[in-house]
Design brief:
alpha/beta, 17 strands, Quinone Oxidoreductase, Chain A, domain 1, 6-stranded parallel β-sheet, 24% helix
Length: 344
């Protein structure tokens, strides 16, 4: 038997319970992972709150940001062995469909979302397909490694491959103190961009400059688009990485320069927005969405961590029994970076 966190009743606050449940057995092509740490993502918060319901398996064990050690391998597994240290993709991918073969495993045609359509990492053990695991160096701290796919890989995929951030660009990152934001900030800096960090949290203001932010914009003082325009001689930013969504969308849009790219990486409120299509046309702008992360990007993130270009920002580690407290901390936006839960 193993311990796992279960959502007994969604709401604010949710009713959560840690219970004993059978340890899953790996089938052919599958691997049993002993979970070391699992990040507490806004996705988990939305399911717990009852906001996100579509596609969620009844009684699912949440958690998709998983690091751990291979405990057992099923038949036909070749790429990992017992004792390997691994992190997971966000999707239990098949490794054989057109998308997996083209490096878009996060949109596997046969895949299931980990901690969404199938059980995830808020437990002592989890079973995943061999293809959904990426080996990491022995030297990596496993709590920080839980962040390699999400939020770090998700941030890099958006910043590098969707927004195409490069040297000399001016990049605005909203929600810069959150799990996605603080890592998107680091990715943009590592790619040579000037970064303007946007936050609503006054207690986080001093935390961004050491990570490379050129300016920190506190949105309680003034609409941050006014500050962006003032800092860019009214030209605007080449890229806006918006990890917050509809709440800040008007300001994110007004911050954008001619030929700018606005990449939507998160949506916390689920509200509609208004946008005049003619403005997109005459600004020659791109409004893009980005989600998930591929194996190759996770491997790139691991290399960047090894080289000291970026670092996982773990805002705290707590046992499964304190998941309700983690929910409150994340709801209150008081966490810098990402919280992780541990079952041991």
């Amino acid at each position: 038997m193993m311990r796992a966190l279960f959502l007994e009743k969604p709401g604010r606050p949710p009713v959560l319970a840690v219970k004993e449940t059978p340890i899953p057995s790996p089938g052919p092509g599958e691997v049993l992972v002993e979970v070391a740490a699992c990040g507490f993502c806004h996705h988990d918060l939305l399911v717990m709150a009852g906001v996100l319901r579509r596609g969620v398996k009844p009684g699912v064990i949440l958690g998709h940001e998983i690091s751990g050690i291979v405990a057992q391998i099923g038949e036909e597994v070749r790429s990992v062995e017992k004792g390997d240290r691994v992190v997971s993709l966000l999707t239990n991918a098949c490794g054989q469909c057109e998308r997996c073969l083209s490096g878009r495993e996060h949109r596997c045609l046969n895949g299931q979302g980990i901690g969404h359509g199938r059980d995830g990492g808020f437990a002592e053990y989890v079973v995943q397909s061999e293809f959904s695991l990426v080996k990491i160096p022995e030297s990596f701290d496993l709590a920080g490694a839980a962040l390699l796919a999400c939020p770090m890989g998700v941030a890099l995929q958006a910043v590098q491959h969707v927004a195409e951030v490069g040297p000399g660009n001016i990049t605005v990152v909203t929600g810069a103190g959150g799990g996605l934001g603080i890592h998107a900030l680091q990715m943009a800096v590592a790619l040579g961009s000037r970064v303007l960090a946007v936050t609503t949290s006054p207690d986080k203001l001093g935390r961004f400059a050491p990570l490379g932010a050129e300016e920190v914009l506190h949105t309680d003082e003034l609409d941050f688009s006014e500050m962006v325009l003032a800092l860019t001689e009214d030209l605007g930013a080449d890229v806006v990485i918006d990890t917050v969504g509809s709440v800040l969308f008007p300001s994110s849009w007004r911050s954008l320069a001619q030929f700018g790219r606005l990449v939507l990486l998160g949506e916390v409120a689920g509200k509609p927005v208004e946008l005049n299509l003619a403005e997109i046309i005459f600004r020659d702008a791109q409004v893009l969405g980005s989600s998930g992360v591929s194996r190759s990007v996770i491997e790139q993130v691991a290399d960047m961590v090894s080289n000291g270009q970026v670092k996982p920002v773990v805002g705290g580690s707590m046992p499964l029994e304190e998941a309700a407290r983690a929910f409150d901390l994340l709801s209150g936006r008081s966490v810098l970076g990402r919280l992780v839960l541990t079952a041991r």
